[in-house]
Amino acid sequence: MQERSKPLISTYGTKLKANCADFQRSAKRQIRKMRLDVESTDEDLESEAADWIADGGRIPADLSFSLSAIPDIEEIHAASLQRQVGIEDTFQEELGRHSATYILGLEKQIERLKSDNDPGAVALIEAEIARTEDKPKYFRTLMQGKERSEDQDE
């Protein structure tokens, strides 16, 4: 299932990073338009955008003080956040389809195990189905191949 989800996860990451780059370009355009101290403001923008991209490509809900000082940056920020929400929603919808396929595969495995009379394995798989259905973040973490912990289950 992870192999089937890799293109989806890769596209998701690429779109988030492209959104950060779009924000950065728009902010630079605004800096030049307002004739601000281009060098220091550009450095702040470059540094923060690089941090966002390195941290998964998500633009924070609140901008730093130095970026907030750019005139009319709120409109650029709001548009970027709106695109980010759209990217996230599309990803969750697509991942939900993969989740349904995963659960179907687990249910088929239960049927095979019932005929083998293996109640312990059936119980474990039923618990996996319940966790996957109840906690979308769990399935997302599982498909991304990240280490799972109880904190991530919620």
Order of helices and strands: HHHHHHH
Q: Any low-confidence stretches, pLDDT <50, length ≥5?
A: 150-154
Count of distinct structural domains: 1
Count of discrete alpha- or pi-helical segments spanning 4 or more residues? 7
Residues in helix, %: over 70%
Largest β-sheet summary:
none
Shape: rod-shaped
Q: Tell me the radius of gyration.
A: 21 Å
In short:
The protein has 154 residues and is an all-alpha fold. It is built from 7 helices and no strands.
Topology:
Elements: H1 2-34, H2 38-54, H3 65-68, H4 73-115, H5 119-134, H6 136-143, H7 150-153
Description:
- The chain has 154 residues and is an all-alpha fold.
- The chain has one domain (2-153).
- 81% of the residues lie in helices and 0% in strands.
- 18% of the residues are buried.
- Mean pLDDT is 85; it is low at 150-154.
Key terms:
154 residues; 7 helices; mainly alpha; 0% strand
